Amino acid sequence: MSRNNLFRCLVPRLYVPSLFAVDLDFLRQQGICGIMLDLDNTIIYRDAGHFSAEIISWIEKVKEKNFKICIISNNRPQRVLGLARKLGLPAVCRGVKPLPAPFRRALALLGTVPEETAVVGDQIFTDILGGNRLGLYTILVAPLPGKEFWATRLINRQLERPVLWWIKRGNKGKQAQRHRGAEDWGQ
Ligand SMILES: [Mg+2]
Questions:
Q1: Which of 73, 92, 166, 169 is deepest in the core (most CB within 10 A)?
Q2: Pick from 31, 87, 42: which is nearest to 61 by CA?
């Protein structure tokens, strides 16, 4: 993979300050009918055992709008499956994102093809890189504040810095402008 192609694979199709800023009707217009959701620091604090009321009602809204939805996480089965059950969602656990296998497993759970599937996550080097390589519609959300896995904090977040800098310069900003609060990204 050339350096340019690698860089392209790191840039999300859309970036938003939080999950709640994702415009579901806009996604539908893009032909999206399946959504894979990262778990830790995307829809729940890494050490938390319960979802916020806002997240639970957001998931309900997504279901009501007839999106197929599943969890995709690198975390261990005890945590992922237990939490997914609380939301009534199927899940891929111990995923080893950004490798393609977990994304393929998630596509099988959803019963969708890559062109009609979005992945929402907080990490460029797992969620976005893996999703882009498979041709998914990638959505980067600002991570929930809180404790992170040591490798995420020391390695992945440092590697993300130059990519975020580039994104924030506005090179991919046009689509994000359709989304509520997108201009507040990173502030
Ligand atoms: Mg995450």
A1: 73
A2: 87
- Ligand 1 centre and the CA of 107: distance in Å? 18
- 16-38 pLDDT, tens digit per residue, is 988 999 999 999 999 999 999 99
- 18 to each of 50, 119, 184, how far by Cα in Å? 18, 14, 10
Instruction: Please state, in angstroms and rounded to a whole number, the distance separating the CA atoms of residues 38 and 119.
Output: 8
- Distance (Å, whole) CA 31 – CA 25: 10
Bond preceding residue 12 cis, omega within 30 of 0: no
Average pLDDT over residues 41-64: 94
Query: Residue 61: what residue type?
Result: K
> Do 5 and 129 contact (CB within 8 A), yes or no?
no
Please tell me whether residue 86 adopts helix, strand or coil conformation. helix
Taken in order of first residue, the domains within the chain and their CATH numbers are 3-181 (3.40.50.1000)
Between the CA of 121 and the centroid of ligand 1 the distance, in Å, is 6
Distances (CA, A) of 142 to 16, 20, 30, 40, 99: 7, 11, 22, 12, 22
